[in-house]
Amino acid sequence: MIFTKIKRTVKSGAISFWRNGSVSLASVLILTVTLTVITMVLFSGVVLSSTLETIKNKVDIDIYFVKGATEDSILSFANEVKKNPDILDVKYTSRDQAYQNFKERHKDEEATIQALTEIGDNPLPASINVKAKDPNKYDSIVTFLKDKETALGNNNIIDKINYTEKNQQAIGSLNRIINASNKLGILIAIFFAIVSILITFNTIRLAIYIFREEVSVMRLVGASETYIRAPFVTVGILYGLVSAIVTTIILLPITHYAGNWTEKLGTGMNLFDYYRANMLMITAALVVGGTMLGAISSFLAIKKYLKV
Q1: For the whole model, what pTM was predicted?
Q2: Most CB contacts within 10 A, which of 6, 22, 47, 70?
Q3: What average pLDDT score do residues 260-281 get?
């Protein structure tokens, strides 16, 4: 019995969706625009977060050692540094490795390689590279390293601690931008959702207006509100479902165009690759969001005509 009612409801809703072509088209377009804008706002948040992670990975501290420092003394110092709980990784680069790395980076610069050869002796120092678990801890790590340097006294093997605060400031600024954009994105999503519900609500009311007399008759003969409302809510769900599918298709060329752009900007991601990798999840979210918007709009629109 329940299955039969569901079958009739879906069939009635599908017929209504197809017969009221212009109303259905208008509702689908409104919901499609809404879902597209909301999705692009969410994509911007993903791109900004990826950019932040890329910048974080580039922030580090380089410690250069004097030429006379032995490898054992440097490794002993590195092991002491590793004990700091704020430090994620410490990587040692010997003088010979630094020399080879430099030659590899400048292999196409003949003048630089020639100048390096004429020097004869390896001018590059050994170094260790320090990465923090939390980028906000770099200032305290620099203080920790300078304290270590002071504690070495006459046995100091450190030539230079290389750290720029500009990267730290960039992370702080980007963090604030992301937080602000996330809040703005939520407001924009809510705004478009409300606008979509209102517009779809009024659009659906036009379709319901055509059947107002049938609704009144059904109420007079004792039909329940659920029975009357179900076909119209089904139409709203169909609006959302079709809109989600159309939005998924529209996002393909949009993300394809934006993908190369986001990659060239150094965000650490290609938006098109991200969309393809997460298409099923995004499509499912669009279907849920679209059907909810359509169903809510229809649910509210029919309410007026249920009063007899």
Answers
A1: 0.67
A2: 47
A3: 82
| Residues 127/93, Cβ–Cβ less than 8 Å | yes
Q: What is the DSSP string of 3-65?
A: HHHHHHHHHHHHHHHHHSHHHHHHHHHHHHHHHHHHHHHHHHHHHHHHHHHHHHHH--EEEEE
Burial of residue 33, with CB atoms counted within 10 A of its CB: 0-12 exposed, 13-18 middle, 19 or more buried: middle
- Helix and strand tally (H, E) in the chain? 11, 4
Beta strands in the chain (DSSP E): 61-65, 87-93, 127-132, 158-162
**What are the extents of the domains in the chain?**
2-55+170-306, 67-156
* Mean pLDDT (whole number) for 260-287: 84
Q: Which residues contact 74 (CB under 8 A, 6 or more apart)?
A: 65, 92, 126, 128, 157
Cα(208)–Cα(212) distance, integer angstroms:
6
109-121 in b/e burial notation, b at 16+ Cβ within 10 A? eeeeeeebeeeee
| Dihedral sign (CA 167, 173, 178, 179) | positive
% residues pLDDT > 90 (the chain): 2
Distance CA 296, CA 195 (A): 13
DSSP 8-class letter at 153 = G
Best CA proximity match to 243, nearest among 191, 202, 297, 206 = 297
- CA 239 from chain center: how many Å? 27
Domain at 67-156: CATH architecture: 2-Layer Sandwich (3.30)
Given strand 87-93, what is the order of strands in its sheet? Answer: 87-93, 127-132, 61-65, 158-162
Segment 201-206 long-range contacts (CB within 8 Å, at least 24 positions apart): 201/297, 201/300, 201/301, 202/301, 203/23, 203/26, 203/27, 203/30, 204/23, 204/27, 204/232, 204/235, 204/236, 204/239, 204/297, 204/298, 204/301, 205/301, 205/304, 206/23
- Which is more confident, 247 or 176? 247
